[in-house]
What we know:
single chain; 340 residues; alpha/beta; Rossmann fold; 2 domains; 5-stranded parallel beta sheet; 31% helix
Amino acid sequence: MQVQSFLNEKKTNMKALILRFSSIGDIVLTTPVIRALKTQLHCEVHYATKAKFSEILVGNPYIDKVHCLNGSLNDLIAELKKERYDYVVDLHNSLRTLLIKSRLGVKSRSFNKLNFRKWLLVNFKINRMPNVHVVDRYMDAVKELGVKTDSMGLDYFIPSKDEVDMEWLPEAHRNGYVAFVIGATYATKRLPLKRMIQLCHQINRPIVLLGGKGEFELGEEICRFFEGYDKDEEMKAPPIFNACGKFNLNQSASLVKQAKYVFTHDTGLMHIAAAFKKEIFSIWGNTVPAFGMYPYRTKFTIFENNNLSCRPCSKLGYDKCPKGHFKCMNDQKFDFYLPE
């Protein structure tokens, strides 16, 4: 009753703040909440995040203002206080966001991270996670406002200046290519080099490798491996273009958008691919789709090794396999078919 009274009072000029400070994929996964708030309540929607992730949001037409954390939390809180919000939607649920909500002193609702259930799954392999995507768990934070999940999936808006012209790519890729996102935040979420090469060989189509500057040399190693194929008529190499580190995030998103298929680890670009409704081949190592972060509302295939008692070994990842064998990636089978 209190919520309904609050909505009736604020329905013409309600101002809402969404909190989510990282990372790329997590922020993209909040976009259905942004859209639903704006289209269903017609309220003013602001979003607070780290400055380095603001480019994900600045082109979003459902957001009226983006506030950036540039180091000083007190400065950000002072900036937010001036806005006089009616409601705060906390989709990060951390000590930082708890402090912000406390200092703002307005009605709020937080996303349930289910940390204890994740801990049970990681440490005892007891799966008490709900069979619900994290997007729908994000939506629970606005349920009391009467906001409901729509069927439109994720959003990602690329500024026109960052749309990649196909003429920028090698000629072999201009009539279509497969995007392969070789990067990942943690080594245990990424295929070893040998397995990446095997996957490229099996794809056997023009391939664009995607990742940040940190993956550039890895991409070069993959390209060098296939360089000798052209000299052997019996070995046909797929044309590979290493785009790692050569494009910014929005430009990489443009390359994902124009790809025929997307192969990817559990990364932010996987969720960006889902926003563009691409067919995704999703590769999982030490983490598992059961955490609720699999591709949302798009066609996808999961590659994972379910014959291991040690998996998942973390809800995030490690620099190397704790067991030393890395079977979650080394023993994976890639069973797929790519129609023309």
